[in-house]
Amino acid sequence: MTTIASLHPIFYIAFLLSIVWWFYSVYSKKSRAMPNLTFWGSSLMYAVSMYFSDFSLYQKLLSMLAPEAGVAIAVFLIANNLKHTRAFFLTAVGVGSVGYMIYSGLAGDGVEYVKKQFNSTEATVNKKSKKNNKLAANAELLFDIKDEALLSKIKETLKEFKLKITKAFPDLKKRDFTELDDFYAVDVPQDQLDKLSEIVAKLNATGAVDAVEYNEVYSLSPIEKRAVSTKEGKGDYLVNDPDVDKLWGFEKMKVADLYRYIKDNKVKPKKKVKIFILDTGVDANHEDIKGKYLSVKSKYDRDKQSHGTHCAGIAASVSNNSKGIASFTPNNEFVTVTSVKVLTDQGWGTDKMIVNGIIEAADNGADVISMSLGGPSRDNKQRAYMQAIKYANRAGAIVVVAAGNESQNATKVTPANVDGVITVSAIGQDMDKASFSNWVSDLKRGIAAPGVDILSTVPGDKYAAYSGTSMATPYVAGLLGLMKSVNPKLTTDQAYAILKNTGIETKQTKMTGNFIQPLDALKATLKK
Q1: Would residue 310 show up in a list of annotated catalytic residues for this protein?
Q2: What are the phi and psi torsion angles at 78 (to 5°)?
Q3: Upstream peptide bond of 415 is cis (omega within 30 degrees of 0)
Q4: What is the band of 196 on the pLDDT scale with cuts at 50, 70, 90?
Q5: Residue 505 resides in a domain
């Protein structure tokens, strides 16, 4: 059914074209048998594809059905007033072309280009978009209850607001690992949203909760897309991937020496480590990913944004397969890569969605969790995130998070500022902090990796160069995967100490943290 949902745009465009064809058959007085069949067939498939999409009923009705119905009505009215064959032909071409531009991303790229003309830097765009985060439409609040027996008291106190209160994280497998089982989600009706602060105050006044948090909506930080650099590296990488020389970071991280060490010393993994990418999904069939890909749910195995696929390629692309790029592991014995989709096809997600993703990854045996997401938050405690990180750590996972692209202190960004994670800043080819990268000087576990003009995988067996702390994060996740494969019991503190002690200085080391050096990190891990 995931395949049907992914074809929703095609069925919708077919539905619009069937309207034009039907009116053409009416005005030209031709047989309507095929137009009728096409209209009802495309209508049915359009409805089925919407039903199986990843969105909630509320999102389907307002975010999808409403605008799509409006366009369909407009096409209907236009087709109803056409008289000539040429006009029908041009209308059909117009519908098909506009539909293709929108769903292929060309229109979105055009909008982003226009936006950039009014915003001088990526950081400026991101600050404006994150200044006042929105709340989730179907669960605006999260609260941590002190005792389940007090739930009836909370419901009675808030009865006047007609709230819907449900378990926030109902799918926990290891309930004794965490307090997340005590979290509830609060859905506030549209007509009560102006009373949100009053609801929070009354909820706190009950004395029945340990904390109340906003369930905020985060969007992907803007990433800069560039043409692939043709500058070649200098290393003999001992692998046959054709674009490995375009990975400038490999030279700075001495990956050729890493490969040679693994080969000469016959380094073997003690465990095949699972790296989980929590993002927009991953193109599971990409030529440079599928050899290492491990699926947990088919609906996570596609990616309309390209962001998750790009991160997966950096962390664990298949090396030495005569295709595309390579990762730190020279063969498929050390790691697998898995997707948990916590961001929608439009590139946004809520705290609740992300926390649930961390839980799902941990419950599926994640050894490393990579999250290239987040943003400024109005909450200070981040209790749900802290509990989720602890849950993942107790399950055996190390969590790596992007510092963010706002060119500010990463202490202001969630989940980069949550205790227990390793937070990654972005470095350019000159070994200086990327202009957009947040700094990690005030965090417990800050580290640096390449994050500018990073070539990696994108959907459809393609490759592209992106920039962002999003790109630096999976480099660290990939290295941690290699480290844990030879020492499966490696903890977050132990791993970070190795990354820091073996890393080298940048031009702004205090702000960025040390720059990772994979070979030295592997050697130190083997000695533990």
Answers
A1: no
A2: -65, -50
A3: yes
A4: very high
A5: yes
Task: Check pLDDT > 60 for residue 22.
Answer: yes
Q: Do residues 194 and 325 both lie within one domain?
A: no
Q: Which one from 53, 370, 377, 470 is the annotated catalytic residue?
A: 470
What domain range is 441 assigned to?
A: 224-527
Which are the contacts of 270, defined by CB distance < 8 A and separation ≥ 6? 485, 486, 487, 488
| 268 and 368 assigned to the same domain | yes
Entry pTM: 0.75
| Residues 92 and 145 both lie in one domain | no
Catalytic residue among 307, 372, 425, 467: 307
Phi, psi of 147 (to 5 degrees): -150, 135
At 229, the amino acid letter reads: S
Gap between the Cα atoms of 427 and 403, Å rounded: 12
Q: What does R_g of the chain's alpha carbons equal in angstroms?
A: 25
Number of C-beta neighbours around residue 10 at 10 A: 16
pLDDT at 76 exceeding the cut of 80: no
Token reading at 271: 């465990």
Our answer to whether residue 307 is catalytic in this structure is yes
Tell me, yes or no, if 286 is annotated catalytic: no
Whether residues 24 and 94 fall in one domain: yes
Strand order in the sheet with 209-214: 164-167, 183-187, 141-145, 209-214
Backbone angles phi, psi at 133, to 5 degrees: -60, 140
390 located within any domain: yes
Alpha helices in 52-195 (DSSP H): 57-59, 66-80, 85-104, 106-118, 122-130, 151-157
Tokens of 55: 């969105």
Looking at residue 237, which CATH number applies to its domain? 3.40.50.200
b/e map of 495-516 (b: 16 or more CB within 10 Å)?
A: bbebbbebbeebebbebbbbbb
Question: 492-500 — which CB contacts under 8 Å span 24+ positions?
Answer: 492/393, 492/398, 492/399, 492/420, 492/421, 492/422, 492/445, 494/528, 495/398, 495/422, 496/422, 496/445, 496/447, 498/524, 498/525, 498/528, 499/422, 499/447, 500/447
User: pLDDT by residue (tens digit) across 312-356?
Assistant: 999 999 999 999 999 999 999 999 999 999 999 988 999 999 999
Note the pLDDT tens digit of each residue in 31-66: 778 877 888 887 888 777 766 654 444 445 555 566
In a domain, 129, yes or no: no
Q: What is the pLDDT of residue 25?
A: 79
Which 3 state secondary structure label does DSSP give 228?
A: coil
Cβ-contact 458, 451 below 8 angstroms: no
Q: Are 285 and 309 in contact (CB under 8 A)?
A: no
Residue 517 and residue 253 in contact, taking contact as beta carbons nearer than 8 Å: yes
Residue in 144, 241, 245, 279 annotated catalytic? 279
Count how many residues are written for the chain: 528
For residues 183 and 207, state if they share a domain: yes
Same domain, 300 and 436: yes
Strands (DSSP E) contained in 172-325 are: 183-187, 209-214, 217-219, 224-226, 273-279
What does the pLDDT read at residue 113? 40
